[in-house]
Amino acid sequence: MARRDSASGNIQEYTRLRSFRYERKFLSEELLPRQVTAIVRSHPLMCRAPYPPRQINSLYLDTADMDNYNDNVSGAAQRRKVRLRWYGTMDGMIERPMLEFKVKYGLVGKKLSYPMAPFVLDEHFNRRVFQELADRSSLPETVRDDLRRLAPVLLNCYQRSYFAALEERFRITVDSQQVFWRIHGPFRNSLLHRQQNPRDVIVELKYAVGEEPQADRAAGYFPFRIMRNSKYVQGIERVYF
Asked: What pLDDT does 21 receive?
């Protein structure tokens, strides 16, 4: 596993964490996704949609002892989530997966990304197949060593809409129609315990350190409840417990 620098919060040998950002998360349980999107579109700071709406698929990885899950639940000062992410169709041939380490230090965080080789997600996908994928991907050796301790544990899919404002200083995403599956079995993948979360709509306001005063004004426009939300934690608790 990569070493942590306790003084700076950096994960050494990957990338020095210079560009931290905040993420404020809001929950709407009563409105439909299109109603939430309409509220975001009407925000006086929002000016454009940088990407079209699309489906996001995340395959989360963790240790045998679920260290990443436990660190996130306990609110550890330094914590992370590790996932493969891709857009569009959930299964079959995945052409452009991205390995992401979402690292948090206190309230701020950064995402470290590495392109992975294509792979097939089907009933034969398991830890061995994932390790073979890591071995044939062009990754730094420290990252490859880290991945040897990890295995797929959760698949999460949802719909996301994007908005940006003020020369990209603020971004807002709207996530809905979440579905979770448990990745199970050392030899075959059964995609067990499918769980849906059709009511929750998650709004995230993302901005760099130093933008807090303007972010306070931007967040004050929303009639939504602020929350602490982790799709990974929510998914694990839905399909494992």
From this structure: 84
